[in-house]
């Protein structure tokens, strides 16, 4: 376990802030802001089972659920982060959107080849639908 305020805790806090930002409708509709948070090698396996690349996600994100200020929004719960290695964070959580639950997992990394000052970016994301009858935490 690390002491509060260590670089490990800061990496986890940075990943959590990025994850929450990507759920914000204002970020979802901004290609520039989303591009700052997604790693150029980004891949997602969505709740539908579809595989998304960086470019596909940037193009589709403004039209996806949760992208309108007055529409349904992703409500995250039970968000937890683990430092896997320096600059690599694994997040898990659930979302509720318009009555549908999904379990989510994402990997955030600081690319050592990126320019100095580049923050953590989402490298991988997966969403899995949760059946209505599933009450596991």
Brief descriptors of the model:
alpha+beta; six-stranded mixed β-sheet; 4 helices
Describe this structure in words.
The chain is an alpha+beta fold and 137 residues long. The chain is 26% helix and 37% strand. The longest helix is centred in the N-terminal third of the chain and has 17 residues, at 7-23. It is globular and about 40 Å long. The relative contact order is 0.20.
Distance between the termini: 23 Å
- Largest sheet data: 6 strands, mixed
Structural class: alpha+beta
- Runs in which pLDDT lies below 50 for 5 or more consecutive residues are none
Give the helix proportion (percent range). Answer: 25-40%
> Got a strand count?
6
Mean pLDDT: 88
How many helical stretches?
4
Spatial strand order of the main sheet: 2-1-6-5-4-3
| General form | globular
What oligomeric assembly is this protein in? single chain
Q: Which percent range describes the beta-strand content?
A: 35-45%
Run of helices and strands: HHHEEHEEEE
Using only CA atoms, what is the Rg?
Answer: 15 Å
Can you lay out the helices and strands and say which pair or pack?
Blueprint: H1 7-23, H2 25-28, H3 31-37, E1 38-45, E2 51-53, H4 54-60, E3 75-85, E4 88-97, E5 100-109, E6 121-129
Parallel strand pairs: 1-6
Antiparallel strand pairs: 1-2, 3-4, 4-5, 5-6
């Amino acid at each position: 376990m690390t002491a509060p305020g260590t670089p490990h805790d800061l990496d986890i806090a940075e990943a959590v802030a990025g994850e929450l930002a990507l759920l914000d409708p204002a970020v979802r509709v901004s290609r520039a802001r989303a591009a700052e948070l997604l790693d150029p090698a980004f891949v997602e396996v969505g709740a539908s089972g579809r595989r998304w690349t960086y470019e596909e996600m940037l193009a589709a994100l403004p039209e996806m659920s949760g992208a309108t200020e007055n529409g349904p929004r992703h409500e995250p719960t039970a968000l937890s982060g683990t430092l896997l290695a320096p600059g690599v964070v694994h997040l898990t959580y659930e979302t509720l959107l318009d009555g549908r639950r999904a379990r989510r997992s994402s990997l955030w990394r600081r690319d050592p080849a990126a320019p100095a000052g580049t923050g953590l970016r989402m490298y991988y994301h997966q969403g899995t639908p949760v059946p209505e009858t599933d009450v596991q935490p």
